[in-house]
């Protein structure tokens, strides 16, 4: 099956961005590990990072026709702002898991609302780069048998 991993704004800076909050792993490290894990499970994982909301919306829309069975998404700051990305996920009706490196519930009040959580299959947050590993594990266990 095909899985799509999406990363929102500023996650291209992982590794150097507030390492005390987000850890030292780079986005390339995370993508490489998840691709290897998916590959070992006989699945295909594609990843995309963008700082632009419309790029993420366009990629989600394209997922409807390209065989994507599951979406893993760290919407980053768009978590707290983007009705457009929420609507795109609802439109394609592909199951998704919401991921955060940090635990937004332990941070500023404005991070405690997500436009995604109530539509997600599940949410993994607070485990640094491990959040991505746990989310992929959960997705692999939930792939539809025919995908
Ligand atoms: C984040 C949490 C968001 O609040 C923040 O805007 C991010 C990263 C995380 O992974 O912890 O950019 O999604």
UniProtKB/TrEMBL annotation:
The keyword Amino-acid biosynthesis appears for this protein: yes
Catalytic activity: 3-dehydroquinate = 3-dehydroshikimate + H2O
First-level EC class: lyase
Organism, scientific name: Luteimonas viscosa
Gene encoding the protein: aroQ
Any one GO molecular-function label of the UniProt entry: 3-dehydroquinate dehydratase activity
Statement: the UniProt record of this protein carries the keyword Lyase: yes
Taxonomic superkingdom: Bacteria
Protein name, entry field: 3-dehydroquinate dehydratase
Protein's pathway: Metabolic intermediate biosynthesis; chorismate biosynthesis; chorismate from D-erythrose 4-phosphate and phosphoenolpyruvate: step 3/7
Subunit structure: Homododecamer.
Active-site feature positions: 22 (proton acceptor), 100 (proton donor)
Keywords: Amino-acid biosynthesis, Aromatic amino acid biosynthesis, Lyase
Homology family: Belongs to the type-II 3-dehydroquinase family.
InterPro entries: DHquinase_II, DHquinase_II_CS, DHquinase_II_sf
UniProt record, GO biological process: amino acid biosynthetic process; aromatic amino acid family biosynthetic process; chorismate biosynthetic process; quinate catabolic process
Residues that bind substrate: 74, 80, 87, 101-102, 111
């Amino acid at each position: 099956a095909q899985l799509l991993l999406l990363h929102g704004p500023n996650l291209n800076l992982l590794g150097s961005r507030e390492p005390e909050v987000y850890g030292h792993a780079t986005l390339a490290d995370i993508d490489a590990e998840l691709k290897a894990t998916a590959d070992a499970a006989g699945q295909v994982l594609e990843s995309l990072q963008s700082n632009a909301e419309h790029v993420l919306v366009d990629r989600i829309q394209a997922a409807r026709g390209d065989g994507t069975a599951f979406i893993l998404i760290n919407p980053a700051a768009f978590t707290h702002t983007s009705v457009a990305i929420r609507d795109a996920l609802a439109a394609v009706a592909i199951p998704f898991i919401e991921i955060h490196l940090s635990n937004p519930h332990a941070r500023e009040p404005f991070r405690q609302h997500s436009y995604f959580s109530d539509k997600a299959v599940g949410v993994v947050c607070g485990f640094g780069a491990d959040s991505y590993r746990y989310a992929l594990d959960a997705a692999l266990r939930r792939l539809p048998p025919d995908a």
